[in-house]
Amino acid sequence: AGAKDDSFNVLDLAEYTKNRPWWRKIFAPSSGSSAEKYNVATQLVIGGVTGWCTGFIFQKVGKLAATAVGGGFFLLQIANHTGYIKVDWKLVERDVNKAKQQLKFHSSGNKVSPEVKSRVDEVIIFLKKNVILTGGFAGGFMLGMAS
């Protein structure tokens, strides 16, 4: 009379997510184009604020990275000049030439893998659906880099 029903619905997440665009995996299944949810002013504000924050952070991190790389190179030059370290320039030149050959080899194929092409197509579709948000983000990013 009071028997439990022990049947379960099993959801295979791997199969479910294979057919979902990457932005829906990140933002939630119900999120599509922001144009469907927000008016133009809201999209511009959201895009502009997130773009400005991203640009500001990129600017600060970029300055820090440039200072670290430049300072490290400067210290290596001083250490080399004073004799603390010895640089084998022939070995450096050989490795640079090897790297150049590898770059020429990889760039001569000019074949884009289908996985990369599908990701690029997904990004382009997302940008087309959210033109106003993307424009606001780009403008905000430029302002963030400049401030």
Terminal Cα span: 72 Å
Tally of individual helices: 6
β-strand amount: under 5%
The run of helices and strands is: HHHHHH
Q: Which stretches are poorly predicted, pLDDT < 50 over at least 5 residues?
A: none
The whole-angstrom Rg is 25 Å
Characterize the main sheet.
Answer: none
Integer tally of domains? 1
- Inertia-based shape: extended
Concise structural overview:
The chain is built from 6 helices and no strands. The protein is mainly α and 147 residues long. The radius of gyration is 25 Å and the shape is extended.
In terms of topology, how is this protein built?
Blueprint lengths: L12 H6 L3 H6 L12 H43 L6 H21 L4 H16 L1 H16 L1
Helix pairs in contact: 3-6
Give an overview in words.
With 147 residues, the protein is mainly alpha-helical. It has one domain. It contains 6 helices and no strands. Helix 3 (40-82) packs across helix 6 (131-146). The longest helix has 43 residues, at 40-82. It is extended, with a radius of gyration of 25 Å. The model has no long low-confidence stretch (mean pLDDT 76). It holds the Pfam family FUN14. This is FUN14 domain-containing protein 2. It is found in: Mitochondrion outer membrane; Nucleus.
